[in-house]
Design a protein that fits this description.
393 residues, mainly alpha, Formate dehydrogenase/DMSO reductase fold, membrane
Length: 393
């Protein structure tokens, strides 16, 4: 039973955390101001690596925002009770992460003052224009979906809204994958495997974020998650992690099959320096192998282990995206495939990239925006999962 003193301490801690989130968000805005004033020359990005650390944060937030809705879809579309109780929180997290990710993208790409132009003048031959429609559509649908869950009069429309969100999130993540799949000039990209790979990755990353947030909310409210529910959800996380690792392995093995991709794969998998290290140690070991051990090893799989596994899955996601986005650009561009061409400007050289403090500030600013939206919303409205006595579906 919480005492008045403990409640006051929690209240103070809440405002301290909120203030810290605000400071980080403001630091992100300061970084944007500096890059607007001095140009992207003060970032680590250059003519070869045009997508840097901010894009790693943005893509993670957008892909995880789609994946976390998987929790809601299992409840609303497939009728699983324990997931349905978590659909409001999953929807809130989706909106929060989408807000953070899109803010980073909008502020990093330059001229944020012209976002209205980009939102109202569509070049439908560009995949980037498709994604403007997909992101705004996702926002609208998730808000309607939340409305059907939190307003009793709208409950009859909940299943239809849940189905629409379920379909749209697949389309959205496919669109994110297509951004890279249509970039045939880069050897890291230009693969039809990328859209399904991003969809599977979103399952694991979204569920891992949900586990982390749910564990914090339960601990904050001095509640304990039903062990049976924890068992089911951690098993699902384990399946998603295995599926993600499988898709990444298929992507690299498919590349290895083609002779013209061999040099690129050799660069990423064996002699790419920081990229190779991040792939094997950051993604494979810490992002997959250790989480699977924490989930399935005998004697483990309890609350703290699942929390640690989820955080490692998130860490692995950042490692994979760094290798995929930045490593893919650092590898020399083959400008005229099938032809011999030479110049005196960096032919065959691995591009260098040193992320600047401004890029990190902008990326963490996006995380802070998602944190603030989640923290305030959970405080003001009731997003706590309302668990009933567990009954097998």
């Amino acid at each position: 039973m919480p005492t008045p003193a403990s409640l006051r301490a929690k209240n103070r801690l809440y405002y301290v955390l909120l203030a810290l989130g605000g400071v980080v968000a403001l630091a992100g805005l300061y970084a944007v101001h500096m890059m607007e004033e001095h140009g992207h020359i003060i970032s680590g990005m250059n003519n070869q690596v045009v997508w840097g650390i901010p894009h790693v944060f943005a893509i993670f937030l957008i892909v995880a925002a789609s994946g976390v809705l998987n929790v809601a879809s299992i409840g609303s579309v497939f009728g699983k009770a324990i997931y349905k109780a978590r659909a409001p929180l999953a929807s809130l997290l989706s909106l929060a992460m989408l807000s953070g990710g899109l803010t980073v993208l909008m502020l990093d790409l330059g001229r944020p003052d012209r976002v209205i132009v980009a939102a109202t003048n569509y070049n439908l031959t560009s995949v980037f224009a498709w994604n403007v429609v997909l992101y705004s559509g996702m926002f609208s649908l998730v808000i309607v979906y939340l409305w059907t869950m939190m307003e009793q009069r709208m409950n009859p429309f909940n299943k239809a809204a849940g189905l629409a969100v379920f379909v749209w999130r697949f389309v959205l993540t496919t669109g994110t994958g297509l951004i890279f799949a249509f970039l045939t000039a880069r050897q890291a990209y230009g693969s039809a495997l990328l859209p399904p790979m991003f969809i599977v990755l979103s399952f694991a990353w979204g569920l891992a974020v949900f586990h982390v947030v749910q564990t914090v909310i339960y601990a904050w409210n001095d509640k304990t998650l039903d062990p049976t529910i924890l068992q089911r959800k951690k098993n699902l996380l384990g399946v998603f992690v295995i599926a993600s690792l499988y898709m990444v392995a298929v992507y690299h093995l498919t590349n290895l099959y083609f002779a013209h991709q061999a040099r690129f794969e050799h660069f990423i998998l064996s002699d790419g320096g920081v990229y190779t290290l991040l792939f094997w140690l950051g993604y494979v070991m810490f992002g997959n192998a250790i989480p699977l051990g924490l989930i399935y090893a005998p004697g483990l799989g309890k609350t703290r282990c699942v929390m640690a596994a989820s955080m490692l899955v998130v860490l692995g996601a950042f490692s994979l995206l760094y290798v995929f986005i930045i490593g893919g650009q650092a590898f020399p561009l083959n400008i005229f495939p099938g032809y011999e061409a030479s110049s005196s400007f960096g032919d065959g050289q691995i591009a260098s990239y040193q992320p600047s403090i401004y890029e990190f500030l902008l990326g963490f600013g996006g995380l802070a925006i998602a944190f603030i939206i989640t923290t305030v919303s959970v405080r003001v409205l009731n997003f706590m999962p309302q668990d009933k006595a567990y009954i097998a579906d």
